[in-house]
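**User:** My hope is that you can spare some time for a protein that puzzles me. I have put the entry right below:
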Amino acid sequence: MLERNILMWLLASLFYAYQYILRVIPNIIASELIARFKVSASDVGQFGGLYYIGYTIAHIPVGFFLDKYGPKFILPICTIFTFVGTLPLICFDKWYYSIIGRIVVGIGSSASAVGIFKVASMYFSREKSARMASLSIIVGLLGAIYGGLPLNLLLNRFGWNYAIYTFSAFGFLLALLLFFVTPVDNTQQDLNSNIFQDLRTIFFNKNIILISVFSGLMIGPLEGFADGWVKVFLCESYQMSESLASSLSSLIFVGMGIGAFFLTFLLEKYSNRHYEIIIICSFGMIVSFFFLLFMRDGGIYVVLPALFIIGFASGYQIVAIYKAISYVSNNLIGLAVAISNMIIMVFGYFFHIGIAKIVDLYWNGTVIRGNPVYDAELLVRAISIIPVFLLLGGLGFVWLKQRSKNGF
């Protein structure tokens, strides 16, 4: 039984890593897309962003169906969505088919994040499930960091049609394995359960919503900085080359993988210390950003530890989600994870928009060789909103900790 549980967990983790690779495909084949479909670079950028529309809107229905029907059916179906949504890139000459497909990829991918928590909670004890979910996140991060390597290899050697067909074949095989390996869930919800009643149960739980909102306030280091401005910031503020800045930025993801595992290990040892762990992570990131933004004379000796600590402390998310789902029964875990993760992602969108708006507001319009140039002080001003909201989120968890002590 344990071996089957491990295999089920591994397949769900591979799905999480697989969708990361499909997520970055537009960045890797941007020039081919422009040439084939006669679109602009801006169109390709918007095409990549459509993934997040599908990803976000699917969270609640995917979470509900995972609770209602179990992962045996939902995970394989969503895996199929991810590779089928990619096929229009090579099967059709009309751009709008690819646009629809990109949204479908996002819809399918939404089950990967929710699924790893659902699978970990179903097949492992509550004490072990957080660690298994953290290991799944590590597998996914490895896909994010290194997944582009096999894709680039296939692209360079055989072309992008062959590469996409190969990854689609892998996705089909993964879907089959997920279906045949995953046992039927005999503890799933009553098939007549009401989604509106389930939503009411979660949305009217103050603890789940407050934990998710305060966690969202702390998401800026990943959603606004790591996947948006870190490379530009290092190049302009620390005068690094693009290749060095790209390499160092991956430290955040490496740190997060290590942090997710270590923090869940702490959670196993101190099972009622969720708030304390999150608060320490919050202030650890604040201090790291202070050094990164205002102690730039330290050069790489500041950058290396600061980026690693920011990534390490970003592992707070898994601790926060496990605290949130502790307020629901096992038959609502999928929906609770979906809603919590969706709220956090909404804050990520606002961090992206907020930093960009500040940059646009104060930018002097300098362009060299077609590329915008930002001075260091402008970037510091824009990125400074991240530690401000980290402080608000950290104080929010301090308040929740005090509130729990008083029996609320």
Notes: The domain at 1-189 is CATH 1.20.1250.20 (Growth Hormone; Chain: A;). Residues 84 and 209 are 34 Å apart (CA to CA).
